[in-house]
Amino acid sequence: MDEGYQAGVVFAALTPSDKLRDAAVALKKLGFFVETMTGFEYTDTQEVVYHFNCFLEPKSRLALRVLCGEGMGVPSLADLFAGAIWLEREVHEFFGIAFDGAPDLRRLLLPEDADYYPLKKTFGTVQAFRKRDEIYG
Q1: Global confidence as pTM
Q2: 132 with 42: CB under 8 angstroms?
Q3: Taken in order 116, 122, 123, 128, is the CA torsion positive or negative?
Q4: How far is CA 105 from CA 50, 81, 98, in A?
Q5: To the nearest 5 percent, what fractions of the chain are helix, strand and coil?
Q6: Mind listing the pLDDT tens digit of every residue in the chain (137 residues)?
Q7: Which contacts qualify for 80-87: CB closer than 8 Å, 24 or more apart?
Q8: Can you spell out the DSSP letters for 116-132?
Q9: Cβ-based neighbours of 3, under 8 Å, separated by 6 or more
């Protein structure tokens, strides 16, 4: 494997929530698509990580990381990338992160009346719950 590609991405950027859509529009114009997204929770914040990829270029996978405080949302990308709605529903269902402007945040797997988010650290006992800076510096 190419040494500069060991993390699986060629570029990662911490993107402000209010600039996420601008970045996504620019990537779409370049032929990128949302490959996947996931959430993270720390003691002081939450984060959504988007992985974008492009079929036209080898090793073109990149990541945008968006911080969102507890109870805050991030802009939805569902109107830009059709597949994003499923990814947003999944992140919302498991982490409780809202996607502002999302057309549908119904549960995918959990019961509709579930009042918990199973991947949040407050769900059960977790020993390794730390601040984001303790992990990334």
Answers
A1: 0.83
A2: yes
A3: positive
A4: 18, 15, 8
A5: 25, 25, 50
A6: 456 666 678 889 999 999 999 999 999 999 999 999 999 988 889 999 999 999 888 888 999 999 998 888 999 999 999 999 999 999 999 999 999 999 999 988 888 888 878 888 776 655 556 678 877 77
A7: 80/21, 80/24, 80/25, 80/28, 81/24, 81/28, 81/33, 81/34, 83/33, 83/34, 84/34, 84/37, 87/34, 87/36, 87/37
A8: --TTSTTSS--S----H
A9: none
User: Residue 101's CB: how many other CB atoms inside 10 A?
Assistant: 14
Terminal alpha carbon distance of the chain: 27
Q: Which residues contact 130 (CB under 8 A, 6 or more apart)?
A: 42, 43
What are the C-alpha distances in Å from 102 to residues 97, 116, 119, 127? 12, 20, 21, 33
Q: How far apart are CA 130 and CA 111, in angstroms?
A: 30
Instruction: Answer yes or no: CATH 3.30.460.80 is held by domain 9-136.
Output: yes
